[in-house]
Specification:
Two copies of one chain form a homodimer.
Chain A (H helix, E strand, L loop, with lengths): L1 E2 H5 L9 H8 L4 H8 L4 H10 L2 H10 L2 H10 L2 H10 L2 H9 L3 H10 L2 H11 L6 H4 L6 E3 L4 H10 L9 E5 L5 E6 H6 L6 H4 L5 E4 L4 H11 L3 E5 L5 E6 H20 L11 H28 L1 H6 L2 H4 L1 H25 L7 H31 L2 H31 L10 H21 L6
Parallel strand pairs in A: 2-3, 5-6
Antiparallel strand pairs in A: 3-4, 6-7
């Protein structure tokens, strides 16, 4: 028995020999072996893998980070990859083989047994982030007229092939799904019972083309540990297990946060400053272009700013407020689109709600800033322009934050992009434009 | 059999009678009943619940959103809550009872059977977001000297009590965990075998005080569907199942995004504009105060700005860049702290890496802006001040973005706060300060 904290940490000396490393890693869980090996260079890691028995090597390989895995399979020979892939379940084998370049992929496929090759070729058809793309083809299923004994015999046969078996699926003679036999039912049922009598007939299924994020929602909603995948004709074609769903949830959360931050999780694994810089620069360039846009707007209103320099002092308040309101709004809109809970649905109703909130905040913050600026500079016309503009900018940012996610979704772009630097930058420019155009309209009243 | 999309949607007319609703909802999965009822007011929802049989009512109740659940248990009588809680597993019962006010909580507890009451009282001791706080006390365990038959008999007894049973735990006479019997092993083992001979002796466990986010990482790393929880003496006290872990992962991701956006998922369920406004205002006030701080800085450098108004035009570039660089940096630092992968660990090494990236970006963006401003305004001294300041601001923002998460962690605050509006606002002020102080130093060179 091992507590997580004790087991997890083996600090490998990257200079030691592969043999020494294999010794240090013996007996560890493959996930821990993979974690320890992440700190070793790809060449050494590959040599360590080749010293392990093939089954362990396979388990370690699929526990590596994606970028490390890609490095390793670039080094391994086609024959070595094929023998490792033969030990993997079809979904993992497909991930490995799918990451290869065309020529090497064909070579690896040619070295697989017919059945394995066909499973991988089938799975390679589906888009990466769909139910088909994450499902495994290995299934234990019985005909609805079979007995519990038959089901148990099939589980025994599948011992080597399937690691995480939770259910036996019950099908008719057209391989259409009729029910499910959880292991618990099999433990408790008399061995001679007909499976149709002990199965659960109500099964939640997903179709091969469902987006992986929606599949994850189905798992979470119904508290599932596995789900059968059916094709458009209702034919059972695969299963997805909860371990893959946890990875989906993790990846999708990372992706959302990366979009918001204008970066990418990739760079966690990147040591080269140049490469990290290349990941981050595009977003910074957007920000810089937006800043130059703001400068252009301010240059356009140069006359007003020369007359009343104090106007310029409040540009940062205006941009900060536009950015924050826009981000709050778009985040809530994107979230409610995802969960389909709360006030879901149509842009119009959401916009009305967001306007009510924005008007409240605009009144409170606008009048506060009006008072602060008035008392500070003793210039109540200036105060009115700043406070009024701030209120206007809040309304505009709320509108943009609501409309952008719907607009992005309509043109087939991930609405989450509306939470990223692009929209914040747009808000900056529009905010300054609103502010200075209002200010210049009332400029004759300003001292 | 039901495809998710067919089953999920029942649109209830909020005006119809509870009896009609009960009819429409008959046969649906409790999670779908809960989803449909989210659109109904709390009074009606409570009346619908009371018309369902207690077991269904219990399943529906725990599938409601947290805020709806709180409304409902505020309306239900103590006796009604007690009979629903009696149908729940201890972790869910604890969530329900823990959400009650003190007096009502005591009343509900007094109406529970002794065993249930004790389980809830035990679980209430643990902090909400720890392994103890999310575990269930119901366990099926056998002594290591028992036989497979005994284990199966215990599973049969637990049928009513435990919904998601995946493992039978094997203990010694001090209730210390010795191994685990997955259902699959029980299906395949001869009925007369000793459990010690068929169990898996290597079990990953977590302790009651482990943070729920760390527990989720353990699940994801080892691909678990359930984990036993042990107290500091190694005594088996509970179990956590993967359905709760999916909720943890979802909630933690929402929390991170909410922190970044300066809002809260709560508002998804809030119809009142005033209440939503109250959730968002604190972050906007921080932004407004920061903006006033920036105004103060600009006012301080009024003389320089009067002399060279064009300086003011580039304030938005400076703040946008400081904000974006700070957010990119803090996001990557917080992520690498979480996963403990990539370059983990000490602030010093991370800072060196971030500086290398920042210097690269500062050189590229600084010289680009230098060229743009120089060509645009034909004033190369101004261009040098803007480009140089931009480079300096990038370095400062990268430093702040790296140091803040470590500093926050040291004082016991969630490092993710460094990705929120507070730090971006701080970056704005510091950026303008750096920019204008550099500019005023070189002001005599500017036209």
């Amino acid at each position: 028995m091992s507590d997580h904290k004790d087991a997890a940490r083996v600090d490998l000396d990257p200079e030691s020999s592969p043999e020494t490393m294999v010794g240090l890693l013996a007996g560890l869980h493959p996930a821990d072996v993979a974690l320890a090996l992440e700190r070793v260079d790809a060449e050494t890691l590959t040599r360590v893998l080749l010293q392990l028995d093939t089954e362990t090597a396979a388990d370690v390989l699929i526990n590596l980070e994606e970028h490390t895995l890609e490095d390793i399979i670039g080094i391994l020979k086609a024959k070595e990859i094929a023998s490792i892939a033969a030990e993997l379940e079809s979904d993992d084998a497909t991930d490995v083989i799918g990451a290869l370049e065309d020529e090497k992929r064909a070579e690896v496929l040619s070295k697989l047994e017919e059945e394995d090759r066909q499973a991988v070729l089938d799975l390679l058809q589906y888009t990466d982030e769909s139910a088909g793309g994450i499902m495994a083809a290995e299934l234990v299923y019985v005909n609805q007229h079979a007995r519990v004994d038959d089901a148990i015999a099939l589980i025994r046969e599948a011992t080597d092939e399937i690691d995480d078996l939770h259910n036996v699926y019950v099908i008719d003679r057209d391989r259409r799904l009729r029910g499910v036999l959880p292991l618990r039912a099999l433990v408790l049922a008399p061995r001679g019972a007909r499976v149709a009598d002990v199965m659960e007939p109500d099964v939640v299924t997903v179709s091969t083309d469902m987006d992986q994020e929606d599949v994850a929602e189905v798992f979470r909603k119904y508290d599932l540990i596995a789900i059968p995948v059916v094709d458009p004709d209702g034919i059972l074609v695969g299963r997805i297990t909860v371990d893959d769903i946890m990875d989906v949830m993790h990846d999708e959360a990372e992706e959302d946060i990366s979009i918001m931050a204008g970066t990418s999780e990739e760079e966690l694994h990147e040591d080269s400053a140049l490469k990290v810089s290349r990941i981050r620069l595009p977003w910074l360039v957007i920000g810089a272009l937006g800043g130059l846009g703001s400068a252009t707007v301010m240059n356009h209103y140069r006359f007003s700013l020369e007359k009343v320099l104090t106007l310029a002092f409040f540009v940062p308040v205006i941009t900060a407020m536009g950015g924050n309101v826009g981000l709050q709004t778009s985040t809530i809109i994107v979230r409610s689109m995802r969960t389909e809970r709360g006030l879901a649905g149509e842009a119009g109703r959401r916009l009305l709600k967001e306007w009510r909130v924005a008007i409240t905040n605009a009144l409170i913050l606008g009048s506060t800033i009006y008072l602060v600026v008035g008392l500070w500079f003793g210039d109540w016309s200036l105060a009115a322009v700043v406070g009024g503009s701030l209120a206007a900018v809040i309304l505009v940012a709320a509108t943009l934050g609501t409309v952008m996610p719907f607009a992005l979704r309509r043109v087939g772009v991930d609405p989450a992009v509306a939470q990223g630097p692009f929209v914040t930058t747009l808000n900056d420019i529009i905010g300054i434009l609103v502010y200075l155009s209002l200010a210049s309209t009332f400029i004759e009243r300003l001292s």
